[in-house]
Amino acid sequence: MSGPTQTVDKRVERSKAKVLAETYRQLVQSGIAGVSVDEVSRISGISKTTIYRHWPSRSALLIDACSRLGGTPVAPDTGSLQGDARALLSHLAHQLQTANWGSVYPSIIDAAERDGELSTMQAALHKTFMAPFEAIIERAKAKGEIPPDRLTNDVVALLVGPFFFRRWFAKEGMDDRFIDAVIEAAIR
After folding, report:
1. How many CB atoms lie within 10 A of CB 143?
2. Which is an annotated GO molecular function term of this record (predicted)?
3. Does domain 81-187 have CATH number 1.10.357.10?
4. Is the pTM of this model over 0.90?
């Protein structure tokens, strides 16, 4: 005999989906500062009482919406650090140049400076996002592709930092030539 099953109320799921979709739309349009629970309620047609039943604070709603910004790739295993880094960095370049993530993430970082809950969420997003990079570097150390005494976080910073610089400061593209140049500079 199986244990009791929890039935999911489809109306609740639809309501939550509407709220998250509108929160995400506001995030993309205006950043975190532009998200208003009043506006989410008005546009989604879901009452504020219902919203606060599922998300006890604006920060909790933002954390849930931000956690859905985009999938993190799994650490590839192409057989070499260069191939693995190229796969991850190609994905990063694509996200930064085409996905809404590239326009929303700066507002997350900004808000995290002043809101403890959002700071915790931003740290978790960062950890999740960097995990595949850390995995390929640790694997490369074990295979002798890079010295074992190289600090993993330093190599990650050398790999991903130039992409954030290009997207948010230089406003320049990130093509295959750039990806290869970054990899070469980071792992030599």
Report:
1. 11
2. DNA-binding transcription factor activity
3. yes
4. no
Q: Does domain 10-66 have CATH number 3.40.50.970?
A: no
Helix (H), strand (E) counts: the chain: 9, 0
Longest CA span, the chain? 62
Contact 32, 107 (CB under 8 A): yes
Torsion of CA 147, 151, 152, 157, to 10 degrees: -120
pLDDT tens column, 102-143: 778 888 888 899 989 889 888 988 898 999 999 999 999 999
* Neighbouring residues of 34: CB distance < 8 A, sequence distance ≥ 6: 26, 27
Q: Render 40-82 in DSSP notation, one character per residue.
A: HHHHHT--HHHHHHH-SSHHHHHHHHHTTS-PPPPPP--SSHH
Cα–Cα distance for residue pair 56/110, rounded to 1 Å = 22
